[in-house]
Amino acid sequence: MIGDCRKSQVERLYRLCLQLQASVSELHVLVEESQAIAGGRQTGELKKAVSRLTSTTTGSFYDPDSDPSADMWSASSEKKFYEKVDQCIDEHPLQAVQALEQRKAEFQNRAGWLWRMAKGHRLVALQTKDADKRKAELYKAIAFAERALAKKPSAEAHKWYGVSVGARSEFGTVQEKIKDGFTFKEHIDKAVKLNPKDPVLHHLLGRFNYEVSGLSWIERRAAAALFGSVPQSTTEEALQCLLKAEELSKKPWLENRYIIARCYIDDKKYKDAIKWIDKAVKCAVTSELDDAIIKEVKTLQAKYGSYRA
């Protein structure tokens, strides 16, 4: 009886979703007509409303006819559950975190659940504009990653602990930033040893080496005074990591190609730089970060275009 009731509720929800989708389609028609009347202009509020409704209704809805007993998150095995989380976490981290919370009672002491929670909260932080909320998400990520490391020091646990601690520098003092930089490097190095085929890890090391290579004399002295050692790296070391990331990556990577170009520019190898600038311009732009990077890439393209062979 409970199962029949649940199925009935799901069917009603599905029908409502279809009705809402139809309403959005009608709204799009009205918008197009209003644009024609207004000479192609669309008011900001109307545009936002359409965007919100469209994003709500273009997702994948559960179809009771395809599998009446299926439950996307709670009914699957641990392995299948993690596979589903991994499929959505990069683009929809908040949804992934919510799904992980649903299985907290079962998996909260498992390393796989813990590092995915760390990753999810870190990615949610990236999408959060409010500084206080972003900081809160970041510290949640660090806490989950620490627990994951205690359970099983896997490549993913080291990776997301290092990434989250590194991101914490946004909110720290100069001393804390330098300390977190050392911690970031330590854990990403460990992650690479455990999983040398992860392109993201090589990219992170390359980006770190590039930033360290550009440290000023004052910054190096500050690090030496505080911690007794000075971060050392060169653009050549950065390039080794970044080119390895490019080799391992399954798709064109805008940020990676941009930093490769910056390395060549810093080394005054402008012919090599423009090759990577041109490659970067061809990459898809899929985020706000990409928007900022592509603008810089196009500026560099205009500046160094004369160095093409």
List the helices and strands and how they pair.
Blueprint: H1 2-37, H2 44-57, H3 78-88, H4 93-102, H5 104-107, H6 111-126, H7 131-151, H8 155-167, H9 174-194, H10 199-213, H11 217-227, H12 235-248, H13 254-266, H14 270-281, H15 288-304
Organism: Amphibalanus amphitrite (Striped barnacle)
InterPro entries: RMD1-3_a_helical_rpt (IPR049039), TPR-like_helical_dom_sf (IPR011990)
Protein name: Regulator of microtubule dynamics protein 1
Write structural notes for this entry:
Interacts with microtubules. The chain has 309 residues and is an all-alpha fold. The protein has a domain at 11-41. The protein is globular, with a radius of gyration of 24 Å. The protein is built from 15 helices and no strands. It has helices at residues 2-37, 44-57, 78-88, 93-102, 104-107, 111-126, 131-151, 155-167, 174-194, 199-213, 217-227, 235-248, 254-266, 270-281, 288-304.
Which features characterize this protein?
309 residues, mainly alpha, 74% helix, disordered N terminus
What is this structure, in a nutshell?
The protein has 309 residues and is mainly alpha-helical. Helices cover 74% and strands 0% of the residues.
